[in-house]
Design a protein that fits this description.
18% of the residues lie in helices and 31% in strands. By secondary structure, it is of the alpha+beta class. Strand 4 and strand 5 (46-49) form a beta hairpin.
Length: 71
Amino acid sequence: MVKVVIDQDACIACGQCYALCPEVFQDDGTGTAELVEDFQGDEVFEGKVSSDIDCTTDAEDACPVDAIEVG
């Protein structure tokens, strides 16, 4: 498992993360990214994701404002 955190203050709602990795990221209804329910922790913007889901790092790399941290 890897920890995934989305900085919702930095997120510009570009949609790259949920376009590249819809099994982990989704639109919160306003365009801002959040984790899908299966991976949410206490908050919708942070949680643990199985390390065998490779697209989380693709989404992290594609985020134009570095709002996603995988680690």
